[in-house]
Amino acid sequence: MTALDTIQKLGILADAAKYDASCASSGTAKRSSKGGKGIGSTEGMGICHAYAPDGRCISLLKILLTNHCIFDCHYCVNRKSSNVRRARFTPQEVADLTLTFYRRNYIEGLFLSSGIIKSANYTMEQLVETARILREDHDFRGYIHLKTIPEADAELVHQAGLYADRVSINVELPTDAGLTRLAPDKNASQIEGAMGGVKGAIVQAKDERKRFRHAPRFAPGGQSTQMIVGADSASDSDIVGKASHLYGRFKLRRVYYSAFSPIPDASAVLPLKRPPLMREHRLYQSDWLMRFYGFAPHEVMQATEADGNLPLDIDPKLAWALKFREQFPVDVNRSSREMLLRVPGLGTRAVGQILASRRHRTLRLDDVARLTVSVVKIRPFIVTADWRPVLLTDHANLRSLLAPKQEQLELFAA
Question: Name one GO molecular function term (predicted).
Fold first, then answer.
């Protein structure tokens, strides 16, 4: 077998890492190399929050240590039985790449995951060693996100958290039945046990930092996870329920959703087509409703249709409002912040501006229009000093009136 050079390995392992969506770089501790000490930074322009159109962060060097794997998860392109070209970096090679790319201003940090080689412990040792080289040998102060392995010893995962800004453990699939069927080498209780261990270490480290100034930090950016959407029969209701459980039990910073993508030489148990990317987008919107808009999980589930999935033509907030029209219209001059946040088309910033403005004047429809992108979506659900929707809120075709118009894009449009 011909030995691969660094560029060839980078092409293989960067491409293999593209299926992992959980690479945001927010929430970490501030560090800087200002003053000539160390290299890299996580503050100011050190971490560039640049995102691709689908919401994925593109500011990190995102690669696998290796795409060799002893597991045989049906949905994974790097599974043991997959016929793909394999490659492997050493920890020193990854560290050298990270430093070289950072000095050239190509990246703002490192997102490192790996297939399982030899054993979970051996692989975890290699990941930790990469982070150790960067932090201790080169005093790298940029962002590091390590994908940890739930089957590895807890002490190795703990070492990862001491070097990394954020750690993550993928739950992979929304239901235990789906995980058992599609990832027979993985165990749901083992995954949640590892997440619980990370949560405990984060809480302990924060407590120690309050009492001892120089206590070590542990994953200051918290932990996150990822779920694959559309590889099994789980509905959006199942996914929302699982996400809520994870947020509540493990205090996750983020749950990421990744639409299943068909892979070469796919297993017969997988669907032949990928789910619409809009489904992934709607799940992110539902996640936002729970985290920032005060919606309970069961309320988001109420926005689903008969098959348990969120509608694709309208967003979850509008879907909920259309199902519970008796809650509307709300008076923007009198209603609480909680009710204003439930108005389709009103974001958290707009609601904050409404609450601040109405202390000084009575708001009219034009005032609300200045705070939003389009007042058309909002009008059926609000009352202002000069506007009342009358029968518009109960209009039989309100959904079709408010749903975004479907347009055929032109390939060569100017």
Answer: metal ion binding
CA–CA dist 234, 180 (Å, integer): 13
At residue 290 the predicted structure's pLDDT band, cuts being 50, 70 and 90, is very high
Domain boundaries, the chain: 6-238+247-259, 324-402
Rounded Cα–Cα distance for residues 246 and 171 (Å): 10
List for the chain the helix, strand, coil content (%; round to 5): 40, 10, 50
| Interatomic CA distance for residues 342 and 206, integer angstroms | 34
Architecture of 6-238+247-259 per CATH?
Alpha-Beta Barrel (3.20)
The residue type of 282 is R
User: Which run of H or of E encompasses 331?
Assistant: strand 330-331
For 149, the 3-state DSSP assignment is coil
Return all residues near 195 (Cβ < 8 A) that are at least 6 apart.
150, 169, 171, 223, 225, 246, 250, 252
Mean pLDDT for 120-125 is 97
